[in-house]
Amino acid sequence: MSGLHEECGIFGIYSKQEEDVASLSYYALYALQHRGQEGCGIALNEGKSISIFKDKGVVKDVFNADSLPSNPECRMAIAHVRYGTTEVDSRTKIQPLVITHQKGSMAIAHNGNLTNDSELRQELELSGSIFHTTSDTEVIAYIITRNRLCSSNIESAIEKTMGEIKGAYSLVVMSSSKLIAVRDPWGFRPLCIGKLGDGYVFASETCALDAVNAQFVRDVEPGEIVVVDSNQAKEASLVSIKTFCNTQISALCVFELIYFARPDSVIDTISIHQARLRAGAFLALEHPAQADVVIGVPDSGIDAAIGYSRQSGIPYGIGFIKNKYIGRTFIQPGQSAREDHVRIKLNPIAATVKGKRVVLIDDSIVRGTTSQRIVRLLREAGAKEVHLRSAAPKFLYPCYFGTDIHSSKDLFAYKHDDATMKQLLDVDSLGFLSSENVTKLSDHPGPSFCTACFTGVYPCPIPKNSENDQHVLPFKGENRDEN
Known about the structure:
The chain contains 16 helices and 23 strands. By secondary structure, it is an alpha+beta fold.
């Protein structure tokens, strides 16, 4: 497994109308900016070739009126926002990636992380492949290319590739004539389909569909390949390949509901906003408190705070003003960068908390540093008591599927017992959502969730003898599929 783990946002568009697919991709990336802030890119299909525009930075800095690519003849594009846990020292690491081979060109954008990356990379290198990045996206691209040389079409090559790669991957792939969406058999990462005029779009979240005025059609099923062919004479239609559907128990990353996704998105029929309200309600039942006001940490803790307030009857108040020009601290690589951002990101409203017993709701407590700083801000603003509640269970195990949790030694709840955590955080009480209730965040039957970072029960085989395992708890999970 590579040392680079990504939680990214992807988008693809095909339109037969006179749509400016570059501008629409730009709008979609803006909507997905919360999923990655280190780099972004847009690849345009120009018939016989694919042009790529990408760089380090956020969308508004990389693309502007002068630099936004434009080609009125383009009918297809894919786009990507990148989050990585290592600094981006070169635009080479920014996606989409473009590969040129004997049968043409291909662009690919990926959200997720492979669990058999190391073995595949070694095999490819021994056969002569030369890698330019440490990303497993390049591994996927090379395997598709290898399979393409002996396949009748690119979707068949992708189907063969799915039999070789393991782990989390939602992909958008673009060839000279086709736009293809792919989701791994477990459905770790979200991917949905939208209708736009006589064309289609694919996106990590429905908020990106809203940004381009596309109508939601459905989610890509776990294990499904969805193909749009631009050579079709009439209105484009979807072709679905379901060879790998229903081969595994679905395992949508539950952290998508807790933190990653935007609250206005719907993932696998689950409203993110409603899921977070339910998390807060469960917290109120599991960890009640005698308090005067409930506040949430902006932005992803607010919905859970409202849910806690409604369930408990304790009034909800606005406790913090957020600097909207500062990015998310959890997805900043390096601990010092996170701490610097927290200092200027939030400012407490003293009128809400001064002299009050405060229930503070945060989406999660991962490393503990951010929570310590936020509690300190409340104390300085005059809060009489602080009762901290986490809308996620305790993080105890590494994630191998794309979330920034490399090893247990980095996790606050793994390193400390409840009493020590309470003391270090300087709170009057502390409560975490139970792992039982985190699987009930959907109010209707839907996908199963991956909760491995809380429970240690991994839905698929994990890398063996990984360097990330040298200083962590022994693996205690159960693999549902050992093949």
